[in-house]
Amino acid sequence: MTLRDRLGDTSHIRGPIEDNRSLKDLVWFRVGGPAEILFQPADEADLQAFLKILPQDVPVTVIGLGSNLLIRDGGISGVVIRLSVRGFGGTEALSPTRIGAGAAIPDKFLAAKALELGLSGFAFYHGIPGGLGGALTMNAGAHGSETAERVVEVRGVTRDGEVMTLPVGELGYSYRHSAPPPGFIFTSAVLEGIPADKESISEAMKAVTEHREASQPIKARTGGSTFKNPPGHSAWKLIDAAGCRGFRIGDAQVSEMHCNFLINTGEATAHDVELLGETVRARVYETSGIRLDWEIKRLGAFVPGAEVEPFLGK
Ligand SMILES: Cc1cc2nc3c(=O)[nH]c(=O)nc-3n(C[C@H](O)[C@H](O)[C@H](O)COP(=O)(O)OP(=O)(O)OC[C@H]3O[C@@H](n4cnc5c(N)ncnc54)[C@H](O)[C@@H]3O)c2cc1C
Question: Would the pLDDT of 221 be above 80?
Fold first, then answer.
């Protein structure tokens, strides 16, 4: 019996359910295999209804705008859920300092909304190419600010299809990390800003753009910063010192411009990208004794026979 058959009657589900759906066009790297099923809920009630009919043993994976993801070439079994901007991309002013925002809103639009409302503290989002759900998961940040500082509370749906609201203190935030309850899908958040004049906010956003254009391959097929900065170190400096700038495997390359970015220069596979990343980790360890940890989330299965062994088994 196929997974689709196991879902039974889906006539009440409004969002599209697609079988064996390629995910390449949904991730920045443009690599990787398909989802067994891709479901894009129309809204929160649709997401709840779908999760209620989905058998409990079926794995669920959520993706946002795919700017921090490496999906392996064997694809993702079970269901992949992607929130649509139409159903989850709204924003509203809740008070003079608070914004309510759907989890699919692109970070850039969130920064623009904060500017419109005269709220500072969101300019760093102007340069992050993901959506709010990804930012809430990754505790995305830049220029000395991070998501956890702006969050008041989040709303989401559990694996059982129940809606739950959680205050920021229950999200286990640390550097590029969160720990919501297992299976929790963020659907919206309440965020708090600091009233400020629009000109200074606009200047801060402009500075973010200028910094990005000068220092990052922002138009490349990439997943952003590949590794977390180890305490007291910059990942890019360690990678540079290990002689990895520009190093390539197939069409996967360590960016010449910013060597904590891996890029797909053409027809790279996810295998090429992951092997390159593990090779960089090994070389950095050899030269500095420091272990780099992946910031990019690697999802899905290897093609059998083409596994990438993790560096030193970790
Ligand atoms: C050019 C470039 C520059 C970047 N610069 C920065 C930077 O300065 N700072 C920074 O922090 N990051 C940066 N990134 C990385 C990335 O943009 C962020 O991590 C971003 O927050 C990811 O959001 P996303 O919507 O793309 O999430 P995805 O990459 O799709 O997913 C990331 C993680 O979030 C989970 N997720 C997504 N949505 C939900 C949801 N609704 N509910 C539950 N889980 C969810 C996914 O399961 C996955 O684990 C950069 C990336 C690129 C390509």
Answer: yes
